[in-house]
Each structure stands twice: as structure tokens, then as C-alpha cells.
Design a protein that fits this description.
The structure is a homodimer. The first copy, chain A, is 47% helix and 11% strand. Chain A has helices spanning 22-28, 42-45, 48-58, 75-87, 99-111, 119-122, 186-204, 212-234, 239-252, 266-278, 282-297, 302-313, 322-339, 356-363, 379-387, and strands at 4-6, 11-14, 34-37, 64-66, 92-97, 134-138, 150-155, 160-165, 173-176. In chain A, strand 7 and strand 8 form a beta hairpin. The longest helix of chain A is centred in the middle third of the chain and has 23 residues, at 212-234. By secondary structure, chain A is α/β, with parallel strands linked by helices. Chain A is globular, with a radius of gyration of 20 Å. Chain A is built from 15 helices and 9 strands. The interface between A and B is large, with 41 and 41 residues.
């Protein structure tokens, strides 16, 4: 087991009704004026906006608002948020939405106390020394941003989509009410399920692999999504299904599923480029990346892929030819993604083969990427991977 | 899934060598003078005392010391610690040891800022409003106190052993170096393994049970202990075995294994009385309590006990007679405890049958205990349970 540091201090209020306590909870923490960040009209249509603002009023709080966060959120809006936060003299960020909304709030949180361009933190020019706390009310089980230290943002200048980790990105507290996700369309539910699985798999399918406890926890997350994602899609207001997915989403990306071994996150690199160039939903982009990456990679790590196939997908172990078991697990994953209505090839989202070189070049714009014990990947390797996704 | 609040903010430094950074880490957090709490001579014999004090000196820190913590730690020593902390104007507690040492530090942490008798918090007279932070360097995988909100102490007045939960009990950070546990005797390693399993089982064998993700995580902890405890006993300096047990210990009691359903902790009530009256090691007392409690209880919850038997012990499911599977899982647990060298009956620790009434009366001194969906247990019920342990 490798040395590791684990620090996931976000307080989680999980279950029905906590969102109506948001005003009191913010007040209890000594805040007086949140900047409320949200997306389009969905929280207004669902009544969540009214619940939250009523709770803020009841607690005697005022607030400012930054609506308009889109999937694959943009740096420009976050910069508006930084200016607004300062002008309105807010003291906390209140993100009401999914990963894009929470990530936008996190970018604002790092940007407000920083004199330079907040992009500095994403392009590697500077390290954050402090941050304004973010609080989240989650509306989709997917990104895990409600407990993670990660924030992903797209800079419109060159459509660069990048993630940044920082302890200041961990929300102070998050409210997770599964009932708030009951109105999600099937496609978004499926995208979320894939994202949860991929946050886990990027930490699990690593070399050297085994850390028994961590692995079994990762498998627990995967088995839970395997079981409950189809239920949530078939019965959108099945509370238990929504709850299992929501808790799986938080645990998949709060670092628990990777304690003690390396992480890969190579599929996220591919996915981010697809999202940046084609505005593909994050989960969908990962559903395309994974089968290709896995088929390219499994021979480097047959025992690990075989374990995945047996423990998560119930494949029969082929002791004489474990590579067959490994492949069966990859196929089972692809079939599962497909059954959820996810695209699993570039052609499904109308990305022609002729674009593969461009994508491979974008991924490796800053040189080869080292994924620890897997092969270092340059343009050539990514081209080969992407060809498996055509 | 029931509503729950999950908050486990302790930062964990896991792996080799972190203990030599303790001075720098304390300084980084702005502390200037820890009260170092520890047990007998073992940390002096192992060299850990020297490593820690050298690190404190290197960081330019001074410190005070409270040695002498015993297993089943006593309130009197903690009260000395409170006085010492105040007199020496310390600003943080540094526990170097196992659960007893960390719990003693936690009691001091709640007591220092409190004007009344610190026992008030344990006997239910008062709720802590604040606390001095505790930092831990762990030397045994067992109690989970290094991340938990629990602190157990024994009041010499009537030998009352009681636990108290509080967010102020969560250590600020904990250093977990599995190599520090390599010198533990087999008996202590085994006691620790049982304690880890029981922290998990008290949250897992509950009614209503199923929360798939939580359950699978609990099973992950149990399977990990099942695999690695015998290895750690056979090969005391097997780092991987020590590491798996240590991380299992922290996750077993930081609340993760119980999210979304009730907890029982009835075996702990029995165990605490055995420890208070016979100074039985905590893990050993639980190894005696569990088989008896489980045999008394399984018929209230056959599906859950059967799931435990199949998933954790690999028992064959008897679909026609699931109660047989449930019993096989209990037997497998008892056999496992026995194989680790644990006592599994009262007679093994020389508690005669004639003492059962006294024990049952002590457990229920404040009236019947309600264990949610299991039967409420009064003197009659505890007598029946204890008879199964004779």
C-alpha cells in the first residue's frame, strides 16, 4: 500500500428535507450573505429555488444571485461571479445544482481572494493559498463535486477544459436530498451513473493495483451503480435508487476509492477534449472513452481487469486464459453503458474518424502524458486509443 | 435509506515515516505546546518516544507529558491531565498510542474548557460546547478512535465504563504508520481485529438492514480483516497486513460503515461491563459477547444474518432454510475469533455462571436498553444472552 493523505472534511446532510434548513445552517456557521450560483430554470420549475430562498429569508439572510451555469461550465461566467461576489460583499458561495454549478462556485471561491487571473490556478501558474467556502445543495448524482477537492472549468480561449485540485475546493457542507433528483431525464441520470463509475475506475484499474480494502470499497460503489442506475432510469422517483446513486457519487470522488494506490484519470483527459470540442455531456464522453482505453490497456494489467470482470460483473473466471475474462468485463461495461442509453463510440456523437488526429493532438498539446505504470501516452498512443472508439 | 449526517473531518496521514514530521505538522497548524499523552513504556522501548520528541524539538516546540494510560483508561488520570494541561498552558493534545490513549486525550480535550466535572458529559448531565483539539499518532489498529467521535472512559467510582460521542472528539489529524504496529503481541493484534469487526457489525446487523452501498462497504471491512488478521498474527512485521488492518480500523468507526441505517452497539454494552468488572481487554470482551448475542438475535433478522454468512464467510446459501445459513455465519465468526486466540465464552476468562445476574443488572442499571428494531433488553433478556456465553 502506498503512503497517502486522506482528508475529506465536508459535512454531508443526507436525506429528505435538509434543503429547507439551508438558511439556518448558513447562519449557524456565521454567514450573512451567500452568492447563490445556479444553472437554468430547472430549480425554478422544480420549486427548489423557492424553498431555498424562503429558507434564507426565514433565517434573516440576504443574498446575491449568479444564474446561467451551463454543462461544461465556462470561465467567463465564473469571472462574472468573482466580480459580483466582491461587489455584493458576499461571504459564502451557495451552489444549487450539479457538478457544473458547484465547480463554478469553487472557481469563484478561489478567485475572490486572489489578485491575479483565477485561470492561473488551472494552467499551473499559481497555487491557491486560501479560498471562500462553498456550500452545495446537490441536484444530480454524478460529478461528486459536492465532496471532492476537484473543480473543472472550460476557458473559452481555445476551449481548454481543465481540472484543478485544492483543499479549498472541498465544500464546507453539502445537502444531498435524493428526492431532488427524481425529475432528472433518463439521459442525465445515465450520464451521472457513468461519471460515478469512471471516478471509481480511474482509481481502481491501476498498476500496481491491489489494496484490498480500497479495492473492495471501489467494487462496492461499482456494484451499487450497476444495481441501481437501471432502477432509477426505469422508475425515476424511486427514492432508494436515487439515494444509492447519490451516496455512490459522493464516495466515488471524495478520494476514498483510491486510498493507497495510484490513479489514472486518462479517460477524463479524453472525455474533457470531447466535451470541449463537441460540448458532449461529461458522462457520455467517458462512456465513449472507456471501452476504447480499456481495450488498449488491459493486456498491461490482465489480473486487475479480470478481478474487475469477476467481482463487478459476475463474469466466470477463465483460469487458463484470464485475458478472456478481462475482455468479458470490458464488454460487460460497454453493454451496460449502452443499456443506459449512452453513446459508446465517437460515431454515435457524430465525431468522424478524420477528427481523431486533432483530438489526439489536443490531448497531448503539452507533451506526452504519463499515467504512472501504464504506458506514457503521446499523440501516437492516443490516436490508437481513439481509433478503437471510432 | 434513513436520513443521516456524515462528518468525518480528521485528516489522515497514512504510511511510513509521518511520525517524524509531527513537530512540523503541529507548528503548521499554529500550535506551540502539546500535552503528550501516552501509556507505559512501549513507545520508549520502540523508539517512537524519541522520534516524536526529536521532531517536536526540531520544530522548536516545547511540551508537557502525561504518561501512564492503561487499557480500559481511568477518569482519574484524565482529570490529572486536565489540571496539567491548564497548569502548563498547553494548546493541543498529542496522543501517542492506541484507543485508550487517544480516548484519554479526548476526555482531557473536553474537560479543559469546561468549568464543571468532565464526567458530566459521560453521565448525560451536560453537552460539550467546545473542545481542545486532539492529534493522534496511532500504535494499534483497533478502536478507530483516531478518526471517530467516540471516547470511552471508566469512572473508578463504581467502575462505570461509558462512551460519549461529540464532534469535538474527532481528532484534527492522525498519523497512521502501520510499521509502528509490527511489535504488537499476537493477543493485542487479535483484540484489535475483533474490535474492528465489531464496530462494523454493530452497524451492519441491524433492522431494517439494507443500504446496499453502506452494507457492501461494511462487508469490505469485514472481508479485509478476515483476510489480513491471521497474516498479521503469523507474520507480525508484514507491512501490508498491518496496513490493511490499520485502515480498516479507521474506516470501521468513522461512521462510514453505518450511513443510512440504525446501529445497535449492544455487544459493546456487554463488553464494557466485562471490562469494567474484570479488566478484560476490549476486543476479548466483544469476542465473548458477539456469539451469544448473535445466537439470541438471529431469528429476528434471518435474511440479514444469512447475507452476512454468505458474503463475508462464503457460506453456502440454504434457500429452503436460511436460518441454517445465518447460524453457519455466526459459527464461522466464533471459529474465526477462536483461531485468533480470542476467548469466546465467559468461562475462558474465569467469569462464573453465578456472576451472570450481576452483569445483567449492571448493564441495565439505568433501565431497559432499546436497540431499535431488535427487542428492548432488560435484565431478563441480558441474562438469557449471557447464559449463551457461559
Amino acid at each position: 500500500m502506498n503512503n497517502f493523505v486522506y482528508h475529506s472534511p465536508t459535512k454531508v446532510y443526507f436525506g429528505q428535507g435538509y434543503e429547507s434548513q439551508i438558511g439556518a445552517l448558513l447562519k449557524e456557521h456565521g454567514f450573512r450573505k451567500p452568492l447563490m450560483v445556479y444553472g437554468g430554470g430547472s430549480i425554478k420549475r422544480s420549486g427548489l429555488y423557492d424553498t431555498v430562498t424562503a429558507s434564507l429569508k426565514d433565517a434573516g439572510l440576504t443574498w446575491a444571485e449568479l444564474p446561467g451555469v451551463q454543462p461544461n461550465p465556462l470561465l467567463g461566467l465564473a469571472k462574472q461571479g468573482i466580480a459580483l461576489f466582491r461587489a455584493e460583499q458576499c461571504d459564502v458561495l451557495l451552489a444549487v445544482g450539479g457538478g457544473s454549478t458547484i465547480d463554478t462556485a469553487k472557481v469563484i471561491g478561489l478567485g475572490v481572494p486572489y489578485d491575479g487571473d483565477v485561470w492561473d490556478f488551472w494552467c499551473g501558474k499559481a497555487d491557491p493559498k486560501t479560498g471562500i467556502p462553498t456550500v452545495a445543495i446537490l441536484t444530480i448524482a454524478a460529478a461528486g463535486s459536492e465532496t471532492s477537492e476537484s473543480a473543472v472549468i472550460t476557458n473559452e480561449d481555445g476551449m481548454q477544459k481543465k481540472g484543478r485540485n485544492s483543499i479549498f475546493n472541498r465544500p464546507l457542507f453539502s445537502i444531498l436530498n435524493p428526492a431532488l433528483t427524481a425529475t432528472l431525464p433518463a439521459y442525465q441520470t445515465a450520464c451521472g451513473a457513468v461519471d460515478i463509475m469512471m471516478h471509481t475506475l480511474e482509481r481502481y484499474l491501476t498498476l500496481p493495483g491491489e489494496v484490498e480494502l480500497t479495492d473492495r470499497i471501489a467494487e462496492s460503489v461499482l456494484l451499487t451503480v450497476r444495481h441501481w442506475a437501471p432502477v432509477a432510469i426505469a422508475e425515476p422517483d424511486n427514492y432508494e435508487a436515487r439515494a444509492q446513486l447519490m451516496w455512490a457519487g459522493s464516495l466515488s470522488h471524495n478520494d476514498l476509492t483510491g486510498c493507497g494506490h495510484a490513479s489514472v484519470f486518462i479517460n477524463h483527459k479524453i472525455g474533457h477534449e470531447l466535451s470541449a470540442t463537441h460540448d458532449t455531456a461529461h458522462g457520455a464522453s467517458l462512456a465513449i472513452a472507456f471501452p476504447a482505453w480499456a481495450k488498449y490497456s488491459y493486456l498491461y494489467n490482465v489480473p486487475r481487469f479480470a478481478q474487475y470482470a469477476v467481482r463487478v460483473w459476475g463474469c466466470e473466471m477463465d483460469y487458463q486464459h484470464p485475458e478472456n475474462t478481462a475482455l468479458a468485463g470490458i464488454q460487460a461495461t460497454e453493454d451496460f453503458f449502452r443499456s443506459l442509453g449512452m453513446p459508446v463510440r465517437l460515431s454515435y456523437i457524430d465525431v468522424p474518424e478524420s477528427e481523431i488526429d486533432l483530438l489526439a493532438n489536443r490531448i497531448t498539446a503539452n507533451g506526452k502524458l504519463s499515467f504512472k505504470s501504464y504506458v506514457d501516452c503521446g499523440t501516437k498512443e492516443f490516436t490508437e486509443i481513439l481509433k478503437l472508439a471510432k
